[in-house]
Amino acid sequence: MPQIRMVTDMNKPIIQIQDLTVGFSMRQGVLDVLHGVSFDLHRGRTTCVVGESGSGKSVTARTILNMVPRPGVINGGRILFDPDGTGTVNLTALDPRGREIRDIRGGRIGMIFQEPMSSLSPVHTIGSQIVEAIRLHRDMDKKAARQMAVDLLAQVEIPEPEKAVDKYSFEFSGGMRQRAMIAMALSCQPDVLIADEPTTALDVTTQAEILDLIKTLQRDVGMAVMFITHDMGVVAEIADDVVVMEKGHVVEQGDVDQVFSAPRHPYTQKLLRAVKVLEEPAPAKVRALDDAPPVLTVEDLSLHFEKREGFFQRVTDVTKAVDGVSFSLRKGEALGIVGESGSGKTTVGRCISRVYDPTRGKIVYGGKDLAHLNATELRNSRQQIRMIFQDPFASLNPRMTVKQIISEPLIANRICAGSELEDRVAVLLREVGLDPGMMERYPHAFSGGQRQRIVVARAIALEPQVVIADEPTSALDVSIRTQVLDLLLRLQAEMGLSFIFISHDMAVIRYFCDRVAVMYRGRIVEIGETEQVIGDPQHAYTKALLSSVPLPDPALRGTRQRHRYRPEVA
Hints:
Blueprint: E1 15-26, E2 29-41, E3 46-50, H1 57-64, E4 72-81, E5 89-90, H2 99-104, E6 109-112, H3 116-119, H4 126-137, H5 142-155, H6 161-164, H7 174-185, E7 192-196, H8 204-221, E8 224-229, H9 232-238, E9 241-246, E10 249-255, H10 256-261, H11 266-277, E11 294-309, E12 314-330, E13 334-338, H12 345-352, E14 360-365, E15 368-369, H13 375-384, E16 385-388, H14 402-412, H15 418-431, H16 448-460, E17 466-470, H17 478-495, E18 498-502, H18 506-512, E19 515-520, E20 523-529, H19 530-535, H20 540-547
Helix pairs in contact: 4-5, 4-7, 5-7, 7-8, 14-15, 14-16, 15-16, 16-17
């Protein structure tokens, strides 16, 4: 059972960050990324650190653990750690590879990283990784450590922990992997938990469960929590204190109620304005006509994955990723698809683009059934149906210049070449708000929002009729998110595009989409006009989904009843 460590002075900060300066060694000299950062972490309180990508949030977190990524160097300041109120250790003065800091990492300060799939080993079981963390910091034999790992998985509410302990990370959903990361971070009951964007890639129901779990464990253990995020709704939901960072500086800090009700710095005001913009439909949105003809019709679409075992490869299990989905998409319309992880949202999009071959059903576009096209016909259809993927960095080849990336579909489909091709790329870059002079740069030289604009330019290069946008803004900051959405709305109005917009963010769906389809376990459980579905949901799962969305106002914390969907009683 978790135990609160004895502390002599609960009012004294457990961590004091004082005038911290961190730089990265470059050929031209040292480039400072943190400029005199100062704030405190207190036991039993949650401090949310907010700001856009590149503001220095994650570098600050890694510096606390003396894990500044190369070629980073700590140029000044102190991080004073006093877990028991009896003695202070300057973490920045410790040898990054020494025994003392290694005992503190994981043992006294735990960390949850943003992407659990890249943080967990794919070749070791979840249990073996937790056991390794336990035995590294505690005097415990392997059998006792394994039982503790099972207990931890049960504590973070992973089903059947006795079996889950022997599974690999790729056998877990995103939410389950994040729970396993939390179990590992809490295995030694740390005094401080650093959570670096732990819910960014999760759907709202899973996010709500993870936030509730962290709050419960914080109350049980009495630890300090440093929670890094760019989601102001999450900040309003869980924060006691808020630290706002911009370009390596702390521009504002204070109590959560004060920061939200009376923000002093223009940057904080900008962040909060961006949140309020997404609370209503886009004012400049051109709505599709109700009598507009359908450009795409999906009928009884299904995709089943079979598990085969044994010498004769008999089917032992069938996963119904998509199960009888039907809808139509009108010309100029944006149809949102929402649901939790594993609901089949992305699979529907990939079936329509024929990345996956559906088990059954029809996908009718231009009078043809895309589900049964041959390779040549499919190549032609893909000029008209394009995709925008979730992670702009992962979907861009790091070895290709922007010009090569955007040119690729134009060359492959023999649209243009030579100087005409370069002119076309320049026009596309201007179309998405980028300078054509950037076309010889590589993806790493761009911010997240700029990379997503490059992805959009590639998607519209062939002048498609339908764009499938799979979580195109989930990895972006709230202010950048609005810019990308407004760009897509402008292109929709100018080019007459129809969108299938896959997202787990209800605010984004409300801002961008005309209609919304709610998916659960491979089926559409509710579909209708966006405002009607959000304002008056009919299905119990839709109600559960909407009740899990964090409200960006700390004054409303705890005022809304959380609905839980139980399909066996729905």
